[in-house]
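Researcher: Good morning. I'm working through a list of sequences from a screen, and I'd like to move beyond sequence-only analysis. For each chain I'm collecting a predicted structure so we can compare shapes side by side. This is the next one on the list. No need for commentary yet; just the structure.
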Amino acid sequence: MSRFLRNACAAALAVAAFGAAAGAAQAQTYNRLVVFGDSLSDNGNLFALTGQPPAPYFQGRFSNGPVFTELLGFNAGRFTAGAPVTGSVNYAFGGARTDFAASPPGMRAQLAAYTGAGGTFGANDLVSVLGGANNIFQAFPGAAANPLTAQSTMQAVAVSAASDINVIVNSIAQAGAGTILVSNLPRLGITPQFAATNPLVGPAGSALADFSGTTFNSALLSNLFTTAAARPGSNIILMDLYKISDPLRANPGRFGLTNVTDSCFTGVSVCANPDGYLYWDGVHPTAAGHRLLAQLANDYLYYGDIGAQSTVQAETGFRQRQDLLDLTGEMVSGYAPWVPGTHMTFAVIADSVETDARGSIASADATGWGGRAGLDYVASPTARYGFTATLRETEVEAGAMQFDVRSYAIDAYAGWRMGDMFLNATAGGSIDQYDDISRLTSLAPIVHMGETDGGSLGAKVQAGLWFDMGGIAISPRAALSYVSTDVNAYNETGFAAEYAYQDRTVAAASGEVSLRAEGGGDDVNFYVEGGYRDTFGDSSDDVRVGIAGNPAQILSRSFDDPFGGSLMASAGVEADVGPFRMSAGYRGRFGDSADSHVGAITLKLPLQ
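Model: Good morning. Structure tokens for this chain:
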């Protein structure tokens, strides 16, 4: 868990940057915010008309501070203050139902008032829609008084309210809104007003409140999937408040809270530490609760950008396949004569990679180790073959995302030389397991987990010449390689926005030129090599991320090779150690956006 906490600040800063940005919905940056809803979103509209709620409520909010829609990075003016419909504006009213009620204006009436004033929706707009609770609250006393019909009564009310919300969302989408954030209802039966411990409600009333809320939520989700399919021009995102309700109640201390069952304001007095309470009154969150809602909203609103961090997974597999092709090719890259015979080879490898930040992608660090075993067969002074099997473990820390990679690889090589010319080829593949994938969500300290697998294939061909300079041999050489890495789709699990990562392939060809110098004697020799590698023919997939069980669209992000063109440097030494031939080598790549380092120690044991 400690490595997640080390990155919490970075994750929070990234979310803040997303919230303040402006652009197209596909990029998940927004020009303005338009709000329709009830008391959870009201920034003072009802107070301006009625003086409700009075102090100690905060400046007409149904809380002791700003509500969550005011914390999303926009300064939305109040409808009742005459805020222009061309900018960010809030039409939410405390007490609003979802219908055309006149006082306070129902949510369908709010939308009508907005469009009637000339309000329109554009591709860069973010629209927040949250309501339905007041329909349930107002019908609840009458329904609860008749236990035999209570559920059927509340079911009709909840389904009707969900239908109203869907009509609103459909109208907004049809009018061209780029992104619509629709919130469902939290778990009503554990709020102070409807808790089983409340003597005015009791266990039966609490269960009825939960039934009403879950009925609304189920109907809303079903409706939104239908609307989203019919309105592909809008990204309709459902923010699940119900799913986070129980985790907040079960572990309040993790969220900086001390009381998640009682009201801070009893109607007479205010608690001593409002920031430690989740509820300000019987159903409304405190300012601290609204801050948590805003963090949760950011996890949903910026899933395309935040989820794009997963690009590091396929990039890790891609680079590791390149590394193994390079290491395997080293078996047939030297100048020393090939003496017919067969050897067993054993090696340990260690590596590290540092990748720079790229836009919404945080910098990444990877460290790993591995073991190799193989068979090397020299058929003649001109022909050599062999293979290696590798187990490799890597731990990657990439901003708010961390994961481990375990790879099982097989690589084969063949070499040919004639006089001063040589040609060698390597090819191989691996099964890659991405385990312990974790993402520190925008609602820290909530961490989401996942796992997936994939595979990598690659091949490399190298050719060159040797020139004996009298004690030092020089070899100019060139190589072409191709690598393809697949990472299979997977879903996160957790209580915030559960990202759904789609299948992805990273594939590209690379070309390189290098110059190698080698010297020494029969017992000990050394080499140094420098060169340049660049990628061409990149056919990699975009990173595509959705939200599991959500009508939200699958969004795409594209990324080039994080190394770009890279300088290569390698060096090594080989010597006889008893019956073994031992070599130690280093290979580094220094790119525009990333550096990598690989070291290996290899033992060769002749077979009798």
